[in-house]
Amino acid sequence: MNLRPIIKNLKEITFPTQVTFFVGENGAGKSTLLEALAMHVGFGAEGGSKNIVFKTAQEDTYNAAHKLAEQLTLSWNQKPRDGYFFRAESFYNVASKIDMIGFGVLDYYGGKSLHQQSHGESFFSFFQNRMHKDNALFILDEPEAALSPQRQLSLLVLIHELCKDSSTQFIIATHSPILLACPNATIYSCDGGALTQVAYKDTEHYKITKQFLDSPERYLQHLLAD
């Protein structure tokens, strides 16, 4: 099995703040880390809560996340009573499972089928209705994937509000410089083969976005030059 360097070199991760971000290039190992954490806690690899776990063909493959999950040990200051693993790429499957279960489950997601909403609306309906501040752990893999910049700002506000309860915790993999601006968050970079803590303005996400927005014409002229 070809493990990412970030996985092979991993020894320990600490979560000193209520919000922790993992950033890095595609393929750096962010999603593998989150999936392994989610599986170890008891969530399904496809996403969902401990009460919504389903097996898919993808889970028949013994992958790096499975291997890492088996080797993890977790130490809690306060063990969460509730939580959710939100995985953008498989949220459609989770929405289908919720529709299939029925029996009032939709009430926890806004009362309307997630498939009867736009992609972005269904994402935000989940964030508004399923996330709450009650000793919960939320693991979010690229939650910004279907959200407009305005909705990303709304999600940032929601996370900030939920963290007013000191027992609520978020672990998030993202490419969004908007979400990364969350106050008092810890940011870990997965680039370079080992986890390193970085400041918000030192992330590539912030620097590249700022450089582009400061002068898009000059940036494109350099980027598209023959």
Question: What do these coordinates show?
Answer:
35% of the residues lie in helices and 12% in strands. It starts with a helix and ends with a helix. Strand 3 (136-141), helix 6 (149-162) and strand 4 (169-173) form a beta-alpha-beta unit. It has a six-stranded mixed β-sheet, with helices on one face. The protein has a single domain, classed as Rossmann fold. The longest helix is centred in the last third of the chain and has 14 residues, at 149-162. It is of the alpha/beta class and 226 residues long.
Radius of gyration: 18 Å
Main beta sheet strand tally, sense and closure: 6 strands, mixed
Structural class: alpha/beta
Low-pLDDT ranges: 57-62
The backbone outline, from C-alpha atoms, is globular
Task: Give the neighbour order of strands across the main sheet.
Answer: 2-3-4-1-5-6
Distance between the termini: 40 Å
Oligomer: single chain
Number of strands: 6
Total DSSP helices: 8
User: Helix and strand string, N-terminal first?
Assistant: HEHHEHHEHEEEHH
How many domains, in number, for the residues? 1
How is the CATH topology named?
Rossmann fold
What share of the residues lie within helices?
A: 25-40%
Percentage of β-strand residues? 5-15%
